[in-house]
Specification:
The chain is mainly alpha-helical. It contains 6 helices and 3 strands; from the N terminus they run αβαβαβααα. The chain folds into 2 domains: 84 residues, Aldolase class I (TIM Barrel, Alpha-Beta Barrel); 34 residues, no CATH class. A 3-stranded parallel beta sheet has the order 1-2-3, with helices on one face. Helix 3 links the parallel strand 2 and strand 3. It starts with a helix and ends with a helix. It holds the Pfam family Oxidored_FMN. InterPro entries: Aldolase_TIM, OxRdtase_FMN_N, YqjM-like. GO terms for molecular function: FMN binding; NADP binding; NADPH dehydrogenase activity.
Length: 121
């Protein structure tokens, strides 16, 4: 697989992390499902000498992200469209995992939990 070869060259040149995506630049349309890009991150991570990888591709929940990391399929989760849908996704993901995170100082008084937001809507 040519992408593993190039990832190996990048690792040798000092690249620390590869943000892995098929990019959607071919005429072939991939099967799209939650985490559909994660296997590519896993292949590059294991095939290119253990270079760190970031996984993308319909990662939408905290549990899904945590599972990817715990399985060792990637070293970092990159969130895209889900952050457009929920700009407070880090807080939402933390809540899904049973963790409470403190709001940044600039958000004091404007940091609502999911239950409060649902009640407003």
């Amino acid at each position: 697989m040519v992408y593993i070869y190039y990832a190996s060259l990048m690792r040798e040149q000092g690249v620390d992390l590869i943000d892995v995506s098929s990019g959607g630049i071919t005429s072939e349309k991939p099967d799209v499902f939650p985490g559909y890009q994660v296997p590519l991150a896993d292949q590059i991570r294991s095939g290119a000498g253990g270079i760190a990888t970031a996984a993308v591709g319909l990662i939408t929940t905290g549990q899904q992200a945590e599972d990817i990391l715990q399985k060792g399929s990637a070293d970092l989760i990159a969130i895209g469209r889900e952050l457009l849908r929920d700009p407070f996704w880090p807080r939402t993901a933390a809540e899904q995992l049973g963790v409470t995170i403190e709001e940044p100082a600039s958000y004091k008084g404007h940091w609502f939990n999911s239950a409060q937001l649902t009640a407003v809507n």
